[in-house]
Amino acid sequence: MDKKCWICGREDYMPFKCRFCGKVFCPQHRLPEQHACEGLEHLKQYGADGSDRAYRQSGSDDLVKGMLKSTAKYAAKSAVRGMRDNISYSMKSSPSMAIIYLCLFSFFLQLVPGYFDALKLVPDLLIARPWTLVTHMFLHVGFFHLFFNMLVLFFFGPELERRAGKGTFLKVYFIAGIVAALGYSLTSSQPVVGASGAIMGVFAALAVIAPEIRVYVYFIPMRIVHALILFALVDFIFLGANDMVAHTAHLTGILIGLVMGLRIKKDQRRSGWHDPYRY
């Protein structure tokens, strides 16, 4: 029997074979909800004999509820564990956390008259105000805009730092953010603020460097690569929509993150670097 985990590729002395899908997994991914078990999904939908009727008569509603509850519980535990690890890591002068603190401080400074207008990016005034290519990344429109951007940065920024280095993280963050702003400026004349372009660049670079990372999108487990594709598709579909979201900046940030991630991965392979966080 193959001893390599189907999810992360980890080779284990005593691997677990899922009784629903028949695939082999390491202890971390052995539970059906931890590897998004296809066999269990098929059983829930069609039953043991392959019919919808068998499923309806099997009394599997409790199984479905149990699986959903277990998945949500595991996602919550993963989030808490990641939060604890990142808080501990932030004590070691993490650039990601420094950016989060600056964005929080800037958010309160937005109460000062003229502060927001002086630092936001206005495409038509870009040549006269080039500093806004950077300063717009520290401004946010409302609490939820700030909260969700910083939440993503909090979880994935330190991960890129650990795997690529703090200096490399800063390069990815600011290059992706600046180029994303330029890309947006070519397609719109409306003012823009927010760190989304830079954060999408970090997310994309991490997806290239560590594609085995699993994330939860609305409690649905998936690989970080699949989550990135989903986010890119959403932005692509809503291009041109009047929804106050800089989709062009997101897509440009993703593109830059992918390019830089490939470059980082190539350099790591050339130097023989081994990811200590990879199973």
From TrEMBL:
A single MF term (Gene Ontology): zinc ion binding
GO terms (BP aspect): proteolysis
GO CC annotations, alphabetized: membrane
Domain of life: Archaea
SMART domains linked: DUF1751 (SM01160), ZnF_AN1 (SM00154)
Keywords of this entry: Hydrolase, Membrane, Metal-binding, Protease, Transmembrane, Transmembrane helix, Zinc, Zinc-finger
Domain AN1-type: start-end pairs: 1-45
Cellular compartment(s): Membrane
Membrane topology label: Multi-pass membrane protein
Primary site of residence: membrane
TM ranges: 98-116, 136-156, 168-186, 192-209, 216-238, 244-262
Similarity comment: family membership: Belongs to the peptidase S54 family.
Name the UniProt record assigns to this protein: Protease
Species the sequence originates in: Methanolobus chelungpuianus
